[in-house]
Specification:
single chain, 296 residues, alpha+beta, Aminopeptidase, twelve-stranded mixed β-sheet, 35% helix, globular
Length: 296
Amino acid sequence: MTDSNIFDVVTPTGDIAADSRLLAEIRTFLTRHEAINTIQLAGFCARDSFDPAQIVLVVRNAGGIVACASQGGPFNMLVSPVEDLGASDALVEYIVAHDLVVPGVMAESSVSLAVANRWAERTGGSYAPGMTQRILATSAITPPAEVAGSARHIDATDSPLLAEWFADFVVDIGEEPAESAADYGRGMADRIVTGLGPGHGGLIWLDDSGEPVSVACYKSRTPTGIRVGPVYTPPEHRRRGYAGAVTAAVSQVMLDRGRAFVCLYTDAANPTSNHVYESIGYEWVADSMQYRFTPQ
């Protein structure tokens, strides 16, 4: 009899046929919870092979894949929902045994905490919580009424403005210090505006005078869905309904283009933004949590 609590961690091997099968299995597994896995899944759908610079860890038991984790560059490791938290232990054991440098973890709240706890136990390091987020999704939009202005698609002429806005955005949410935010903003603007990221784009909301006042982007295309973000309104233009209006507009464009659903991440500690998104048709799917690791 096979023990379903015995886990095995597998990684891409470089063998083209084997890796192709593994990639297909990962896509199928992550699609079970498509809205929750949108960030990870979009990356695996955008390529026909594994990125050699990315860490990919797949946890299996007798029944097949039970967890998938991936990490690229300096970003936190993304971990899928798991069907048995024992898979989290197996994941951390592999990380420790192979001396992998993992700056942190981002996953559903219970999974993220389980990984962080186990990592601290095994390494003697510590962890600190980052932003608590809610994952929301919709398949039908209710546009807000009586918001002045209109939306248009972003284009190349918007790059300087969006680079500035995106830099301010990552400082606002605490993801980048001010000294490095400008580079981050330019990089994000390049991906969104010049199409360096497949399926990337967005809408800008213009007020009655034609001035750009808010932006909502889309990216991370999955088999049937897509993710909206970032959404940003400069402080001087807030509290006028622009964020809700531009988010509703970009979400409707995505649904009109054949996406079955649109999802987004929102700060769980910000009741205003949560109310805005829920008022246009978004509903809660899951909670997501980030933890940043500090080695011993």
